[in-house]
Design a protein that fits this description.
The structure is a single chain. By secondary structure, the protein is mostly beta strands. The chain has one domain. Helix content is 0%, strand content 49%. It is built from no helices and twelve strands. Strands 1, 2, 3, 6, 9, 11 and 12 form a seven-stranded antiparallel sheet that branches.
Length: 140
């Protein structure tokens, strides 16, 4: 599991860089890039959730926005694995939860990232303790 407890700023198009790593299954994670690397070929299950606040620029009209996250294979080559978003559009400074799951076939040494695919920046906001988490499990 990788998680965060801070108010992490994530610009549109940037990867999520969660700061606390508790991985024990051979998967490695680099919090400076937001990349996780698979240790061996197989089928993997990834689950993620974040509490995100819409940070659309206050100088513009306050148009509600859905916030989204995509799981991408980063190496070798960029490939979309899964997409998730808030269930409704959020006004400026409103907070919503983005949650997603994916089952995919991965190869040893391939890397993956969770990317903010919203057309706006967002901030991760702690709810009780955590502001976001993702879990990676080899299932086959």
């Amino acid at each position: 599991m990788v998680h965060d407890e801070s108010n992490l700023f994530v610009a549109s198009g940037d990867p999520l860089r969660l700061g606390i790593t508790n991985l024990s299954n051979g998967v490695t994670y680099d919090p400076t890039t937001g990349e996780f690397t698979l240790p061996q070929d197989g089928q993997y299950l990834v689950h993620w959730w974040v509490n995100a606040r819409n940070l659309k620029n206050k100088d513009y009209d306050c148009e509600p926005n859905a916030l989204g996250i995509e799981l991408h294979q980063f190496y070798p080559g960029d490939a979309l694995i899964a997409h998730s978003s808030t269930h409704n559009k959020l006004n400026l400074c409103e907070t919503g939860t983005i949650t997603g799951n994916a089952i995919f076939n991965g190869n040893a040494g391939s890397t993956y990232r969770l990317i903010n695919t919203s057309n706006v920046d967002f901030e991760l906001v702690p709810n009780d303790r955590y502001s976001g988490s993702f879990t990676i499990t080899k299932i086959n």
